[in-house]
Amino acid sequence: MFFVNTNLNLKKYYSLSILIAIIYIYYSLSGSTNDKSMYMSFFLILLWIVLAFYSNNDIFHYCLIKKESICLLIYFLYLFFTGIFQGGVLNTIKIIGQALIYFSPILLYNYYRNLSLYKLKTLLIWSCVFILYFILKSLIFYNTYTDAARKLASDISSFGNISIGGGYTLAYAVVLFVVFLFDIVINGIIKNIKIKSLLLFSIFLMIFLVLSTRSTLTILCLFFGIALSILFKKSEKKNQLFTVVLKFLLFLIIIIFTFSLQEEIGLFILNFTQNKNDVVSLRFQEIAIGLINGFASSEYLSMRLNIPLKSLYTFIQSPVIGKGYEYGYVWANSYPYLGGHGEWADILGSKGLVGGLIIYLIYFFPLKLERKYSKNYLSISYILTFILLGVFNPILSFQPNLILFFIIPSISVFLFSNNNKVILIK
Fold this sequence. Notes:
The chain is an all-alpha fold.
């Protein structure tokens, strides 16, 4: 659905709104460790909302009545009425502002999708440029400081005031982007050799970033997503269902084969990494021990598997609204309640069935709409990868949501929405 505003005097506000949106995406994507960074992002998104409303209130109103936007507004009210008594007014506004920043790509996409495809493309190009810029900046930083991503995760101020994309949060976003772009490449959507080469180079660069973070589970999720893309690769043959079933059976056989030889595989990994002391090698040594002696014998794996259980136990204690209201949703005070490394379990423990269902619906509706465009050409591998990432990681942040809610659906619109026919870029 598109709206056209014939008031030429408002064109300057369109240009100003897109400029503020570009600045906002850059600043929020930067993952600045400055104490005031969230307030700056909050100011910029509020300024954009004012300009967007004034530029075309019809489109803005249409964006607000979409299902995901209604769920988002309900979520804000939920946070306000459950958090204000323990957290106070100022802290509750801060928590709501943080949620607005995290889910703002939904508003940006819906607004420019209906305002102007040209402006949507402009914002998409700048977003991709910013992502590549922060990937390069992060790679340089990780090459300078050993295990920097892990140190930032434990203490955001450990390197002072820096802006390299947010550490792990950028890595989570990159994993989703890699899986989606890999799906596009292997399914032959892009025919132009130069563009395909650029995509392959970008994919290689992003994979290198994920490896540089030395986050074992993030790396495993990356290759899990790539494997899914290969497994569910679309086929033009009439027996496509048979091909998918055959690939699935092959995948199942590989899993059974792996489990039957898990001790031998564990010994191979252990021998391969025994003289290495970097974080990734140590994590793979833990996996090897788990394969040889059972995962209960691996302290790291046992700990990561048990972390979500802490949040689920909190959820069982208060299943309706969770226990986030008891600490005002302040992350620093959540340790007695949440594991902190499993987003989906943390959401239930913090916000219960009511708040959790609202958040899940905020994710569900945009993803469902994106699949409307791409389902005939691409698999759901990036969605399954996102779900897996959230099982063991705190994935709720701006960077992954920018990929999910803005970049992927925008690319899908330009590639797949031409009268339900794929647009092959030549």
